[in-house]
Task: structure prediction
Amino acid sequence: MPHIKLINIVGARPQIIKASAISRAIRENYSKDITEIIVHTGQHYDKEMSQIFFDELEINKPHYNLGVGSARHGRQTSLMITGIEDVLLKEKPDCVLLYGDTNSTLAGALAASKLHFPVIHIEAGLRSFNKTMPEELNRIMSDHSSTLLFAPTNAAFKNLMGEGFRPENSPPYTIDNPKIYLTGDIMYDNTLFFAGLAEKKKTTFLEQLSLARNNYILVTIHRDTNTDDIVRLKEIFVTLNTLAEEKDIMLVMPLHPRTIVALKTRLKSFYDELNHFKHVKIIPPVSYLEMILLEKNCRMIVTDSGGVQKESHFFKKPCIVLRKETEWIELVKNGTAKLVDADPDRIRNEFFSFMDLHSDLEYPAFYGDGKTAEFILNEILLMFEKE
Ligand code: UD1
Ligand code: UDP
Result:
């Protein structure tokens, strides 16, 4: 088996968490075969959006941090492309591994594919069919720059076939003859690995927040469609607060910095009020182990996050999705996640129906067997063996 050098590109919070599944599998089973080099674009940079995950999830320190930071899409993505290109020319890796759909993903895909380094995309094929989302453009362009594409769900795999990717392609794989795989989801690997650890390491976390098990609702909001429209954003908070008051249940909200910036700069006096609402607890972003505890012990989740939607399923919690559409369509078909856009009436209906639910919901195993990272690494090695 040839030894390969793999560049792992991360930048946003969920990518750092996802990379931990791959880093762990390399450390445990493939350290003789794979040298991993981590490149952090610096898209997320606050301690609680970045460093905390490297420390807590035992990921190697990034070999390169491009320090790009926040900016408009074009500037941010172009700075990342420039920085990644320099690293690729210096390191000359065998392949470049990308996660998800952020600007860091797109920058990695463009820089690597134009230099003819094979791109490997984890979370390939997800589609919202809404090209006004920056993430949808990032997904499509990253997938079409890739050589190996790992689709986490049946729906994602079918989407790739719908765009002309052919499962029957045979080696050698290239950008013009790519290989698509149906895998599970590496975030399910992480949940299985870290859930027990979270209970052990964070024994007093819920008490510190004065939260009683099964008696609070976890809320996260960060999508641009929600944060950039302040009328919509305010309406979401007002609606949720009214419902929480009616049911006398706490809303705990670890808010993304994007949402805090929107509240502080564009809804200042409402933000001051919000901090005094009896049923609302706004807290800074939490660590992944803390997030797992919040998810595992809540009554229900309300979110616009992709990752948190799936984690609601891993922890068997009903989920209200503050979006018009989702890439994780199996959750909606299963009836355990409900799309409500930001419509107060729809939020209210789904909130009450989940709160008053008396029969158990079913949570089938949509996301693999918890060994997806190993499967992916094995296939990557096979590609080089066959060359
Ligand atoms: C990005 C991804 C989104 C993903 C999310 C995960 C894109 C286009 N979007 O959105 O798909 O769901 O990450 O969290 O790549 N900020 C800070 N500190 C930080 C990071 C961000 O204050 O450490 C603030 C800045 O005001 C910044 C804003 O958040 O302008 C948005 O950050 P950005 O990385 O551009 O996009 P996200 O909304 O985080
Ligand atoms: N997460 C976290 N702390 C938080 C909020 C989220 O560790 O305060 C984790 C969450 O458990 C999930 C991932 O971050 O694994 C989701 O990231 P995010 O919601 O930022 O982005 P998305 O998944 O929508 O791209």
Q: What stands out?
A: The two ends are 11 Å apart (CA to CA). The pocket of uridine-diphosphate-N-acetylglucosamine (ligand 1) is lined by residues 12-14, 43-46, 49, 70, 101-103, 134-135, 222, 256-258, 261 (CB under 6 Å).
